[in-house]
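INFO worker-7 received task bundle
INFO bundle size: 2
INFO processing item 0
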Amino acid sequence: MKKPSLIDIGVNLMHRSFHPDRDQVVARAEAEGVSPLILTGTHMRNSEEAARYAARFPGKLYSTAGIHPHDARNCGPDTLAQLRKLASLPSVVAIGECGLDYNRDFSPRDVQRKWFEAQVMLACELRMPLFLHEREAHADFVRILKTHLHRIDRAVVHCFTGSASELKTYLDMGLYIGITGWICDERRGKHLRELVRRIPLDRLMIETDAPFLTPRDLPVKPAEGRNEPAFLPHILQAVSVCVGKSAEEVAEATTQTARRVFGL
């Protein structure tokens, strides 16, 4: 049977765990029907590396350019100009990963808010999608987004693991939702298995967030627990069971949504 065509909207492919076999990871994903991949940029050097690597595989790899809240403390006078330059490259399809993370507080909260809003404004200026991160910072995250909502073109809350009320707020704001292998964890992801049914198929996308968030129920455990985009069909199966639709229908819908949101 032909494998469903899937798009992994969030892969940290420049992570050091992929240094030994990055090309093979891309090939394994494609062999499982997972192509194209969108590589996540999380700080300036990483965003530059992702854009450069994606350019080697036109039509198969794309990337985002942004500053994760953990790295907001390293931003400076040239940050926005550098992001703007990266965003002009054909392989770069979104601004992010950007947002707020009050769980780890690796950057001071006021600094996180400043650079999150700056990136939101940049995406609005360039009419590019936003690839968003939020952890334990819902109120401030929503407040900043709502300030610019009339100008935001498209935005996806990546790796959603929040509450029912948070999900409703995001959907009411017109945001898209990214679901990861968190849904495959019968302990932490139990609430997500019910919530995913509330997401309209045309607002849903799927992602691995590799090498992180390896699906806990994979039949064969990967070496050193590393997640990779070839495992996205496993996440698709979990999502399709939860929403009560065939894997083929969910694959087609999420793929079409990803193509539309990121302009692929």
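INFO item 0 finished
INFO processing item 1
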Amino acid sequence: MTGYELCDHVLRSRSWAALDDSWRARQEPGSRWLAPASRELGHVLQGLNPPEHTRHRRSVGNLFDRTTVTRLRGPVTAIANGLLDTLDAHLHEDGIADFSALVSEEMTMAVMGHWIGIPAADHAIVRHHSHAHGQAQELLPSPSQMVAADAGALGMREYFTGLVRDRRAHLGDDVLSGWIRTWDELEPDRERADEAVYFLVMFIVGAALETTSMLLSNLVLVLDQHPAQRNWLREHPEEVPRAVEEILRFDSPVHVTTRVAREDTVVAGTHVRADELVHLLIASANRDPAAVPEPDVFDIRRSGRSLSHLAFGGGVHYCIGAGLARLQAQVLLDALLRRFPTLRVAGPPQWEPRVAFRRLKSLDVVAR
């Protein structure tokens, strides 16, 4: 499915379901959907369907309301400035630096680590396991990608079950401690309660690492391709939030997402049987000329309907961390415009072999 209206409808409709564990369990033996990494994804928020999804979603509340985002702005700004100091040092020493490795990947992990309470010494291993596990969400993952994904899933489970266990032993006033208390009220079985908390924290951290880091790199990559608009934005920094939305529309981190038909149906003249998959091409929908005037034109002065996008999904599975992703992007872009007016991409970006969840190997930059 490639059109905005159709993708938006499927994302919001209860006639289409997420790929939960019961659907995955019905697939043929040897199928990628029965791999350990895939089965784990059938238990996280994005893989649950109502009423189970409703229960789990309500347990985390309104994660990033205005009050929470305001409270996090200070720490996020400090993290961004610290990483840009590191970037500046590398540029002065070597003349070139990998923006993706030094800033995008580090910032996303540091922000999640601050918010959840993950020790800085563990950031690298969590990021490694997350990126490996994320390959299970690819459109057509190769056998080697699934082997890596299974290892990543095991690593994520070992780390985050340990984190939940340690936090339960030392409950505080942090987010993770709050989820533990909430699930103790919802679920009398302590083991099942901790399992629910594990899936929540593993998913929220992993989802951020697989998407927000790409958004942060796109701030540099897309604006480098449109220098006149970058210069205009530098003169109008109050438009940074709108620029972030246009970057999300123009090149969203998630290009493809998938749903399954609950029953036999006809969609856009095509017969789809119950349990069959449909792939929603989010990147295509965001550039649908029926929804966005001149969709292939990058224009940070868009407003209203022409700025609409599906980068964060829709319906009950609308991205739970959208508010935090926007905050990080806005803070970083504002700092980049002020501190690095001559920052440029040094050469073609190097990409991981992914289609659905895009990820960079490297993004070299220079300051001319």
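INFO item 1 finished
INFO post-check item 1: The CA atoms of residues 83 and 255 lie 28 Å apart.
INFO post-check item 1: The radius of gyration is 21 Å.
INFO worker-7 idle
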